[in-house]
Design brief:
The protein has about 210 residues and is α/β, with parallel strands linked by helices. The protein is about 30% helix and about 30% strand. The strands form 2 sheets. It has a 6-stranded mixed sheet with strand order 6-7-8-3-9-10, with helices on both faces. Strands 2-1-4-5 form a 4-stranded antiparallel sheet, covered by helices on one side.
């Protein structure tokens, strides 16, 4: 069994509030891992620590053998949706992703368009993101996360705002990515989707992470 992510005594506080309480957990490579928990339970803070967006008070995060904040600042091959995806409202979906892709310069316009199509949107649409529905913005966020073909995906509530058809399409996409041995961490509220999709399910409650499946 090969682990992509290792959390060792991961602890994070904000003022007097301890949000993550010494989490010890490993996430297997090439699997889909679900994290359940109410708002405020610590899921998003844990995700941000794994991404390198927040520095732990103590403990460590290791991704693909490299310690975050010591060996590298951020995981080297990662796609992320945390909280509401932030886009420029006056630009189309394609123009938004094109600007983001230019930061690394790893992919072509054709790759961007392919990612947009994979989430059920039209890459040629001139519609501005400011006119998108919540579900369309969520789809575009997923396209942004997958467009550079990362090895690790961290998705915080990827089904937010999606109708039944949209949720089924995203489930199918995640299953397809798993077949390609991508590692996926996702937070969601719907237990039925979690049971169907995930190889492991953990519950986050009051800053403690417990394996339930």
């Amino acid at each position: 069994m090969e682990y992509l992510i290792r959390l060792d005594n991961l602890t994070k506080s904000f003022g007097d509030e301890i949000v993550l309480k010494g989490i010890n957990h490993n996430f297997e490579k090439g699997k889909i891992h679900g994290i359940m928990g109410f708002n405020g339970s610590g899921k998003t803070v844990m995700f941000k620590c794994i991404c390198g967006f927040l520095k732990p008070d103590s403990g460590s995060v290791t991704v693909d053998g490299k310690r975050i904040g010591k060996d590298i600042d951020f995981p080297e091959s990662i796609g992320v949706i945390i909280e509401s995806p932030g886009f420029l409202s006056g630009l189309s979906g394609f123009e938004n992703l094109k600007r983001l892709a230019a930061l690394k310069g790893l992919i072509t316009n054709a790759d961007i368009k392919a990612a947009i199509r994979r989430v059920g949107l039209d890459p040629m649409s001139k519609k501005k993101v400011g006119q998108y529905s919540l579900g369309m913005r969520e789809r575009l966020g997923i396209a942004q996360a997958i467009m550079e073909d990362p090895e690790l995906l961290i998705l915080d509530e990827p089904f937010n705002g999606l109708d039944k058809k949209g949720a089924e399409e995203v489930c199918g996409l995640l299953k397809e990515l798993k077949k390609r041995e991508k590692t996926i961490l996702m937070a969601a509220h719907n237990m039925q989707e979690m049971e169907w999709l995930c190889d492991s399910i953990c519950e986050m409650d009051a800053g403690m992470l417990t394996l339930v499946k």
